Amino acid sequence: xxxxxxxxxxxxxxxxxxxxxxKYPKPMAAVMPxxxxxxxxxxxxxxxxxxxxxxxxNLPHDHVLGVATFYTMYFKKPYxxxxxxxxxxxxxxxxxxxxxxxxxxxxxxxxxxxxxGDGLFSIEEVECLGSxxxxxMLQLNNKEFYENLTxxxxxQLIDSLKNSK
Length: 165
Ligand code: FES
Description:
Blueprint (H helix, E strand, L loop, with lengths): L10 H12 L8 H12 L4 H11 L3 H10 L11 E6 L2 H5 L2 H12 L12 E6 L11 E3 L3 E3 L4 H13 L2
Parallel strand pairs: 1-2
Antiparallel strand pairs: 1-3, 3-4
Helix pairs in contact: 2-3, 3-4
The chain binds FE2/S2 (inorganic) cluster (FES).
FE2/S2 (inorganic) cluster (FES) binds next to α5.
């Protein structure tokens, strides 16, 4: 993951940008897919990148910042290779979400939004991810859900991620 970068879409990527813009009546609506493109390209979304997206869409930078900060799927800092987002919202909290979060935090020696020294893991406490019926749960790298978590299966997950580095 790049710790610093100069945000710049290629000519090819600009075609996708324009495609997104063309889908909506107002360019403002394309802010989310463009932020997502930045994250896919650089791994996270810097303040400079938010401004860059704002300039493309002719939007106030504060508007882009507001969108990027509202959604936890947008990473506002470089995270670890395995970013673990642990839900502690009501259903998960009632079924041990904080125990899971605290266990991972203690096992890896990192607090909320911190990254391990080897860059392999980071952890983040998040709001409901829509998997309440299988609480407690976590999401790995914005893609994979791990549900009905227990201390044991969380340990197994972390060990398998360590072994797959
Ligand atoms: S409360 Fe955790 S997924 Fe809904």
